[in-house]
Amino acid sequence: MAGQIGKNRNIFLVWLVWPLLTLGIYHFVWWYKINREVGDFDHRIDVNPAMSVIAILFGWIIIVPPFVSIYNTGQRIATMQRDTDLTPTCNPWLGLLLSFFFGLHALYYQSELNAFWDRSRGFRGTTAYAG
To answer: Which InterPro entries match (predicted)?
Structure first.
């Protein structure tokens, strides 16, 4: 069940700095990476990172797919928490709601992932943050 532990990232770099510096491209790279990390950690969670990115990249044409992808990613994080006997703290509905306010779902989901990765590796007090 517990596979490769994902990467901790600075939530403000993920949410604001890197997307601004890269004209939004980083958000899609980050979205791919977090979905892949969830699948790498728990192989029972069905996730196709490329389809998740396509849904948020081109889904605006149909309107619904980006919101489904945002909700499903939050659900995957909560499932990962639950499957490791942790109380799920990630709420996909909250993530979906935050997506309407300056894209705050990125900050929320990365914060949840950082906390999960820390608990999974038995947080030792030293965590490398990268964008």
So the answer is: DUF4234
